[in-house]
Each structure stands twice: as structure tokens, then as C-alpha cells.
Amino acid sequence: WNCQIITFACRALQSIMSCLECFGGLFGGNVSQKKSDLKKAKILLQDLIREKSCGPILLRTAWHDAGTYDKANAGKPWPNAGGAIGSIRTPHEIGAPPNAGLQKAIMAYLQPIKNKVPGVSWADLIQLAGATAVQEMGGPKIPMRYGRVDGEPTEKAPPPFGLPSAKPDKPGPEDSAWAAQHLREVFYKYGMNDNDIVALSGAHTVGRAFKDRSGTVEESSQSGTSYTRKGAPQAKKSNTFGGRSWTKNWLEFDNSYFSQMKHHDREVLVFPTDRVLYVDPGFKPHFELFAKDQAAFFAAYADAHQRLSELGSKFSPPCGISGL
What predicted TM-score, i.e. pTM, was given to this entire model? Predict the structure, then answer.
């Protein structure tokens, strides 16, 4: 009993100290400067997204940085559980097949902003870019928290780093069973549930797949569909053409991924991991709700995205910085 009392007292003291550190930090110059830098970075990101129509690749980068997290490794020394720690920019991760094409997001889009606001960590900049992209493309404002510390795991996980795959290596009649199991294996290790899986899958309302990136479609950056090829109005200001999109208006964040999937548009993409969402009994009710109610989708997505963006993150101050 004495040991239990001492342990409880120590944890309570640690909690109080963390709160005091946050309280003191929030009114300190360092946090004020961090918040100012974050606001500047957000404005620069907004300008970039409006000028280049590059929201999808920024969102994918944020997901792939956070998506390396595995709660089974949460007991290991930070940052060996992975997560939103900015490690996607390291050679071990950025050069791996799951992150094909994301070097452009890091070097061409984010590095110039990082140079202008060096006080913003890479982990924060990547997640700020993802959340800003969602909102700029018409999606919900996500209640984000910043102040992430950059980290690089000393225990290097092999590719694909626990990230989801689009389809099985050998397609067959059991695709739906494989897809449901695969999605749950990936997202449950993030602490997500079936509602979260369906909501986060809805981010495929934006973006494209490429033969010369994921290799999962026939269309490359040199070819495309009527929605993605050069000159297509859906491409807006994008300077990257081709690929195959999940929706017609692949630069608009809405619920069309759900509402249009069953229309069997031959110009769009539907993987087994997409189709299973309206087949599997655990996923189907959420799919149907989001197909008819965009507000419900936006609310569920914003909540799940916010939690995804904090997986494995270490904050300074511990309570983070919000209110951007």
C-alpha cells in the first residue's frame, strides 16, 4: 500500500509540474514567438496551396509522417514508437516505396517555408501543412495542437513502416476480407475505431494515385483520365498532371468520395480498401451516414485527423500551442 501511495503521489506531482510548465510557458516569450512563427507559416502555406493547388500531396505527407506510429511500441523510449515526429524527411523514410513522390512535398514545397520560419519544427510544419490543406480545399477546420519536437527513431522500422496498402499483392475473390482486416490492423494500432477508419478514408476525396509512385494504377504522371490529364479543369492550378483520382473534383474536400463511389464512374479509382467500406458490417453504417451527411463526415474527420496528427508526438510546452 505504501508503494502504491508513493507511486500515485509521484504521478500527481508530475502532472502538476507539467501543468505549471504549460502555464508558465504560455505566457513566456518563447511560446509567443513559436505561435507567431506558426501563424506566419500558416499564411505561407495558404498562399502556396492557392498558388499551386498542391493540397493533396501535403495532406499525404502529414499522414505518412504520423502513420508510422504503433501503440504496441508506446513503452519504448521516445521517439521509437514513431508517429508525427518529422522523421519522414529522413533518408530512411523519404526514399522508401510508400513515400514515393513525397520528396517533392518536403523539398519543393515545405523547405522554402522552413527556411523562412526556422523556429517551426519539421514535425509541426508537416502537420500544419496537412491541416491547412484540408481547410483550404473546402474541408473542416481541424482543432490542431502544435509545439511538436522533432525526433528520429533509433530503432529503424523497415518499409512500409506500418502504413496502409491500397490493395493486396495478389487480387482475388477474398479482396474484401483482406481489405477489412488490413484496414483494422493498420488503424487499430493507432488507437482508432471503425468510425475513424471510414472518416479518415474519406480524405481520398482529394488526390490521385500514380503508376510511377504507388504503382497501383496504369495512369502515370505522363498520362491520366479526363479528370486528371493536362488541361482538365479539375486540375485547377496544379503543375502535376496525370494519375487516377478517387473523385471527379479531386482538389475539393467534400463527401463525394462516399456519395459517388457506388455510381461506378469509370474515370475514378476504387481499391478494395475503398469498396469494403460499404460492404463490411462494421464500416457500412458510417459510410452510409457520411454519404448523405457531409457535416457528420466533417465532424468525424476533424476529430480523427486531430488525433492522428498527435500520434507519438512530444510537445514543448507539454500542453502544446493552439488557437491558430
Answer: 0.91
